[in-house]
Design a protein that fits this description.
The structure holds 2 protein chains of 2 kinds. By secondary structure, chain A is mostly helical. Chain A is about 75% helix and about 5% strand. Chain A has 11 helices and 2 strands; from the N terminus they run ααααββααααααα. In chain A, strands 1-2 form a two-stranded antiparallel ribbon. In chain A, helix 1 crosses helix 8 and helix 9 packs across helix 10. By secondary structure, chain B is mostly helical. Chain B has one domain: ABC transporter involved in vitamin B12 uptake, BtuC (Orthogonal Bundle). In chain B, about 70% of the residues lie in helices and about 0% in strands. Chain B has 13 helices and 2 strands, in the order αααααββαααααααα. Chain B has a two-stranded antiparallel sheet. In chain B, a hairpin with a 2-residue loop joins strand 1 and strand 2. Chain B is globular. The chains are: A mainly alpha, B mainly alpha.
Chain lengths: ~325, ~350
């Protein structure tokens, strides 16, 4: 029975996708492959941002709706550091550290004092997101900030068969996303702190009873989660652009990635990010005024048949 | 089937009987809101009175859903916006550039159609979000709401994109143009009172009692034979109806509907209004709406207009941190302290 259902779903989902791929390749192969690359590089950015979101949510049940604001904050910090020093790697580090510091501050000054009150914590993050967004607009202004790619990544990579040329910077995002995914996996599965975080996801009370300083673990997790948003911000400052409103866009992406992929699972975030990034890009390329509908249909289908997400487990 | 299949002795509830007598404060408040336009300027009547009543009505739907159903949905403004958009699309041509979209139905057909479409959307949103519980609700409804915002923004064939519908006309019925301050105020007051009394009634009806039971302990209610999912979706439908009425009124009030009307800031504003007033009583959202509208109108005299978000974010943060029950909780605390002091004095 189970096997039959699997075959059924594989057919229901696979056949339309296969048909679309065949049509796309036959119709305009270059556009199709370019869109795929664009989708995957966007997925890479979505994964970096959403991984932080899901890490925090999985451990602390804290839906950090200020995650988009942290993304924007990291992006601006990176932009100005790059402008002053001229080093892209320094900008990446500054974006990560700056957002991580703000996240740490939020955890230590606010969330620590309301453990277990998920709804209240979420409302605090909503209030903080409004305040951070407005402070950013106040200090930086509402104009578009576009960061240039570092020199060694600027310009296109030429002589690729079929698509001819592709931006070096965007292409680099793929290995960066994979590297961050692998690093997170190693951190969670091979280090002592990661082990404690995983134990905390499964049973916080037991972890605390085992003598672990849970508050410290929470603070570390929150800092890493916020830092990933900031890191994503610096990457996005080049790939997209920094302007008020981008925080909402990345927050929506993070929400959908973790709802689709499964909440609290880093692997789920990777799966969700690929689905969302690719679907969104193909939507924009082939049906521009309805592309959000695809995102929405994916969300609805996943919620209808797997309410906890594709890789989600009951809490 | 909402009712349990097993016969259960429900507490005897007589919905139409007033449990609480009509007190002096009810009469005073009613007289005040009825007389308000006669001593206030048209500006105060329309911008403060009318807007607060309409926003309070939309926030009331969230109070019902969140305070009594335990489901804090951020998509109530989306439902209201769907009603507003549907009215603009079905109704009389809204503006020259959008005339190709508007279907030109009479106003009452458009209103009924708009509310029906909005309630169906609310049921759909409810059906999606009741599959998971608790904190997931806020995430799913936020995602749905933001997705709708982006759809309105990027779609030109139905929603007219960034422009939206700029000239929505409130109808002229019985020779009265309902957009004028005085008629609009009484129209909003009528629907706000109707919504308030409807929620008050519903909370004491078997459905409302069961809903509050589900909020407190869904597993036990399920074991008692109540269909938890059906009750929750029905609650979304009820809240959707209230929000839809508010949404049509809000579109008339603004005279336009754009993607900005259903954007995150308005979705969150409705949550702020409900939390600010307090979710423990249906009067809360109206109190919250009055404070919100007063802040929105007069805070810009003190701070820069651009910095309104900072003010409202700070107020919201303060309320969530220091008085989670909102103004109602604040009021209860003051009252209890005051009474204690009094008792001390009597001794």
């Amino acid at each position: 029975m189970r096997k039959r259902w699997k075959i059924f779903w594989a057919l229901v989902i696979g056949v339309p996708i296969a048909a679309f791929v065949a049509w796309g390749l036959w119709d305009n192969a270059r556009l199709f492959v370019l869109t795929l690359l664009n989708g995957l590089t966007l997925s890479s950015l979505y994964f970096i941002v959403a991984a932080g979101f899901t890490l925090v949510f999985g451990l602390m049940r804290n839906v950090n709706l200020a995650h988009g604001s942290l993304y924007l904050l990291g992006g601006y910090i990176g932009f100005f550091v790059a402008q002053k020093t001229g080093f892209f790697t320094l900008a990446l580090a500054a974006g990560f550290l700056g957002a991580a510091a703000v996240g740490l501050l939020m955890q230590v000054t606010v969330f620590r004092f309301m453990p277990g009150q998920e709804l209240r914590q979420t409302m605090v993050t909503i209030a903080l997101s409004i305040i951070i967004a407005d402070l950013l607009m106040w200090s930086v202004g509402a104009t578009v900030h576009q960061m240039d790619a570092p020199e060694w990544l600027a310009g296109p990579l030429r002589d690729i068969p079929l698509i001819k040329a592709y931006s070096k910077y965007r292409l680099t995002l793929l290995p960066i996303g994979i590297a961050i995914g692998v690093a997170l996996w190693l951190f969670l599965n091979r280090t002592r702190v990661g082990m404690m975080i995983r134990a905390g996801v499964d049973d916080r009370a037991m972890l605390s009873a085992a003598g672990v300083n849970v508050n410290l673990i929470f603070a570390v997790t929150f800092a890493i989660g916020a830092g990933l948003a900031g890191l994503g911000g610096v990457i996005g400052a080049v790939e997209l652009s920094m302007v008020p409103g981008e925080d909402v866009r990345l927050l929506l992406a993070s929400l959908i990635v973790v709802i689709v992929g499964g909440m609290g699972s880093v692997t789920g975030a990777a799966v969700g990010a690929i689905i969302l990034g690719v679907a969104e890009t193909y939507g924009l390329a082939y049906a521009p005024t309805y592309s959000v509908v695809f995102t929405f249909v994916i969300l609805a289908l996943v919620l209808a048949f797997r309410p906890r997400g594709i890789l989600g487990r009951p809490a | 089937m909402l009712a349990p299949r097993v016969a259960i002795a429900l507490p005897e509830v007589k919905p139409f009987e007033f449990r609480n007598p009509v007190r002096a404060r009810h009469v005073i408040v009613l007289l005040f809101v009825l007389a308000f336009p006669w001593f206030a300027t048209p500006f105060l009547t329309f911008q403060i009175g009318g807007q607060a009543l309409v926003l309070g009505l939309i926030a009331l739907s969230l109070t019902f859903l969140g305070g009594y159903g335990g489901m804090v949905s951020l998509a109530q403004m989306t439902v209201a916006g769907i009603a507003g958009y549907s009215f603009a699309i079905l109704g009389p041509p809204a503006s020259a550039d959008a005339a190709g979209i508007s279907l030109g139905a009479p106003w009452w057909v458009a209103v009924i159609g708009a509310i029906a479409i909005a309630v169906l959307s609310a049921v759909f949103i409810g059906w999606l979000s009741v599959r998971t519980e608790g904190i997931y609700t806020i995430m799913i409804t936020l995602a749905v709401g933001v997705a709708f915002y982006y759809l309105c923004l990027q779609n030109y064939s139905i929603f007219n994109g960034f422009q939206g519908f700029q000239r929505i006309q409130a109808p002229t019925v019985f020779g009265i143009h309902w957009k004028q301050p005085l008629p609009f105020y009484y129209l909003a007051l009528f629907w706000a009172l109707a919504g308030y009394l409807f929620v008050k009634y519903l909370l004491r009806a078997p459905f409302g009692i069961a809903l509050q039971g589900i909020r407190d302990n869904p597993r036990r209610m399920n074991a008692l034979g109540f269909n938890v999912t059906a009750h929750r979706i029905a609650a979304y439908a009820v809240a959707g109806t209230i929000a839809a009425v508010g949404g049509v009124l809000f579109a008339w009030y603004n005279g336009l509907i754009t993607p900005g009307s259903v954007g995150t800031s308005w979705m969150i504003n409705i949550l702020i209004i409900a939390v600010l007033g307090g979710m423990s009583h249906p009067v809360g959202p109206f109190l919250g709406a009055i404070v919100f509208v007063l802040l929105q109108t007069f805070a810009i005299d003190v701070v820069d207009r651009e910095r309104f978000n900072l003010v409202i974010g700070g107020v919201f943060l303060a309320i969530v941190l220091f008085s989670p029950d909102g103004l109602l909780g604040w009021w209860a605390r003051i009252k209890s302290r005051f009474l204690l002091v009094n008792r001390g004095g009597v001794r």
